[in-house]
Structures
1.
Amino acid sequence: MLTAYGADHRRLRRMVAPAFSARRIAELKPAVQALAAELMDELAAVPEGQVVDLRERLAYPLPIAVIGHLMGVPQEQRDDFRQIVDNVFDSTLTPEQAQANNLRLFEHIEQLIATKRAEPGDDMTSLLIAARDEESGGAGLTAAELPDTMILMISAGYETTVDVIDQAVFTMLASPAQLGLGRSGEASWADVVEETLRAEPAIKYLPLRFAVTDVKLPDGQVITAGEPILAAYGAANRHPDWHGADADAFDVTRRVKDHLAFGYGVHFCLGAPLARLEVAEALRQLFDRFPGLSLAAPADTLRPIPTLISNGHQKLPVRLHTAG
Ligand code: HEM
């Protein structure tokens, strides 16, 4: 779907789009809230003052549980997928390592398909398998499209949302004035999510785009058909023509909230409403439950993950004081 064009793209997207309608996302909200609350309870059990890596204890487990629930990934397969999907987004792997990882990815997807074919559930994997098995006169999925679509859903749902939770918590803790606006209600948690997506998009650069026709740019340059394109969402989101002279500043009260973090046009991220719901819920519950939350290391010592695609930290060490 991510790289398909025209009628093929529409057919593939139509198949999964209903799962992301406003109604379906609203139905998922109680489950997302309950999953976030469970993680908060686990955090609350950590002894006062002990350093916790929030990337490990919140940013990862919440999206993995949500997409695992949506796709019907059995609990015992979730950790393997996490490792494999991390590698998919890691642009520092050698070609051999990347190829070995792809093989593992397909093996795990086939295993998931076999599990769900034997025991279908109320999940998207079972729906996609049914769409494949119906062989509905070209309207369903081909044998290759079934695993590819599942890989897209699982990888898109795993890694990206992790980075937005990480960046939103980090930026709030590193900018007490901005956090104050969120806590006082002068800015909503949804505003915090949008500004994080703008200033620190989870996908800095998106590879795997190719020009289908010649594309003439406003400055006269031409990208010729077939050339690869690396979409630089991070740069676009901080362009002064769009967001003014203070485009680099993190400002949750910003009036113009537009950004390209979810892409643009017919390929616009299908999971955007789900991702927004997850991150806003994580922030709301985290700052409610731990009013004294603080970074456990100077902000400038946190290291980015070493890939040109994703935009997160290797670790997010915090102290979880409950008192304000
Ligand atoms: C904050 C988290 C997320 C970010 C930053 C993000 C970002 C993106 C981006 C940049 C694209 C490409 C858009 C383009 O080519 O113009 C995309 C596509 C897509 N995303 Fe997301 N995504 C996120 C979460 C999710 C989630 C949770 C899911 C599913 C559960 C998902 C499913 C998809 C799918 C299926 C596509 C392909 C759409 C198409 O090609 O028609 N994403 N996403």
2.
Amino acid sequence: MPLEFDVRAKCVINATGPFTDSVRKMDDEEVPNICQPSAGVHIVMPGYYSPVGALGTPGSVWLCTVRRGDVLAAWSGIRPLVTNPDSKDTQSISRNHVVTVSDSGLVTIAAIREHNLQAGSCQTMGLQLEGAQDWSPTLYIRLVQDYGLESEVAQHLASTYGDKAFEVAKIAQVTGKRWPIVGKRLVSEFPYIEAEVVYGVKEYARTAVDVISRRTRLAFLNVQAAEEALPRIVDIMAKELHWCEQKKKPSLQPLPCRYKKRFHMFDKDKKGFITILDVQRVLQSISVQMDENTLHEILNEVDLNKNGQVELNEFLQWQRAAQLGSACCKGPPL
Ligand SMILES: Cc1cc2nc3c(=O)[nH]c(=O)nc-3n(C[C@H](O)[C@H](O)[C@H](O)COP(=O)(O)OP(=O)(O)OC[C@H]3O[C@@H](n4cnc5c(N)ncnc54)[C@H](O)[C@@H]3O)c2cc1C
């Protein structure tokens, strides 16, 4: 039985992105939808695709062949396309952010783009975040001098944690090498260090997924590097959180097992394939609406033998390709 609590608040703010309408409907079932979820995709390419630096001047672009194998990571999500219920034209998508207050006082804020939420006249523009107080552009030099961290690692810690970087440096392990003195990297090509996992746990990280995707950005930057770092991350978390071997297992579960579970979430009646109706049912259960054309387009990409349904092997191939960055994980978070 789910538990219910009464919470007193001066104000309730609904900033739930694509879930904007489901929360608005908790306040008033009759309220018309203002949010049209739309799929968005990001891919990460090696730095040499960027048209700046030795090969070109900033802003110049040249044509070259992009190979699928060069995609280091790919991910998708749902962006909130919002209309303003207070504007005369309630049909057109807002180019800016939307703030609306319901009769009961529920404040809803939503925007299609993150930068639209950082409006120029915003009161929070000068607000200092945790770690900002003693931060300076040269703070990383003190980390190098006082702790013996590599310069690249120190710069990463200073820009990520601000003055809290010293707390991470304090718990960094001795490398046993002449240089750097402390700060063991999780993977050689990224400046993330093991101490960040320990620090993340102190900051309430409880799953390996949280560490590889949010406490560090490894999962979004390079999927193979993230997979490589995973066992060490799980070991560190297990030590900090006193996990037994059994508890470590799900985090280390081979990817195909996870994908199969995901497949069966869609194929609930165990037909052995997924149809557009299955996808619609799952999207409905998480209050996400998507127009049928977009759904057909997505399924068509995954349906390799073009028989109008997605079999397990097609699903596995697609998920694996998306993980390895050789295919885009377009559309809803399947
Ligand atoms: C693939 C992709 C690429 C994008 N690229 C860009 C870009 O390059 N530039 C740009 O400016 N924008 C980009 N966007 C859009 C940007 O991510 C969104 O506009 C922005 O994240 C919206 O911020 P938000 O805080 O309103 O919602 P979100 O970031 O979606 O945050 C909503 C939060 O509410 C939580 N939540 C939902 N329901 C509940 C509930 N019932 N109770 C409690 N919590 C709840 C969610 O877990 C989530 O943490 C991109 C979006 C996607 C999907």
